[in-house]
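Title: Prediction job returns without error message
Component: structure pipeline
Severity: low
Priority: P3
Assignee: unassigned

Description:
Job completed but the reporter wants confirmation the result is attached to the right record. Sequence as submitted:
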Amino acid sequence: MGAAMTALLEVDGVVKTFAAPHRRRLRAVDEVSFSLERGRTLALVGESGCGKTTTSRIVARLLEPDEGGVSIDGVDLTHARGGSLRRLRRRFQIVFQDPSSSLDPRWTVARIVEEPLRAHRQPRSRVDVLLDQVGLDPATRHRYPNELSSGQRQRVALARALALDPELLVLDEPVSALDVSVRAQILNLLVNLQRERQLSYLYVTHDLATVQYLADEVAVMYLGRIVEHGTTAEVSTHPRHPYTRALLDAIPVPDPSAARSAERATLVGELPSAIDPPSGCRFRTRCPKAQDLCAHEEPALTDSEGHAVACHFPN
């Protein structure tokens, strides 16, 4: 009850389908539920095509769910319209994966950062302060996106997202398009901004190494469903789902000899089609532990002391 009362973001039974050939439907997100407390970070992780980006865009109201709902601090976001939605949008913002495509190339940095302030009729004098907060020289305000490095462009995207003082940032693979050294700088910036502003992050990524640094909790998605959810420390050290174990074992190890000597799980095969997913457990076609039960009965997401897993034979 305490966690439910303090949650900033609630996602409840969200379903999203898309049209597919031959009048079929692709079920991209299938009954996904989670909550995020104020000032914390929840990471949605999984392979490409697992539904994590679609989920994040539903949270940011860039997509409408077919079923289920999303609420911000107890206020229904899914059905908000007009002025009500406009007021709610100030409370959450999104930062996209590729800053090159999310920033208007015809606008200067100042114009880009000013845009949400203009849209919500706020004073535009804060641009230099916002640029300073994300580690950019105020002189950058007169430059265009093509004159900046990829790291600088992502800092501009962050400054724009922070312009309206949101409580929640949806971060869709915010560092995957950056060089390794720049990636570390942006991650450190996100940590500092969260501490200073008490921000909540919904962090979408396939990189579990960055999850261990940034996130408090992690929800692992496979073929549209959450298959494991718990604290980052618990999931990282005691993964219970074979899919989570394989994702963690795919993280590069600095010592090659240690990597060779350790028993590491590997994923085999391709992600099945979300148009026609496998019966029973969706992961069974790639799972080394699959048995007859897995083909006939879909495992429920069962919670045990805050660590939930959807597997008939968990670790």
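Comment from assignee: result matches the submitted record. The mean pLDDT is 92.
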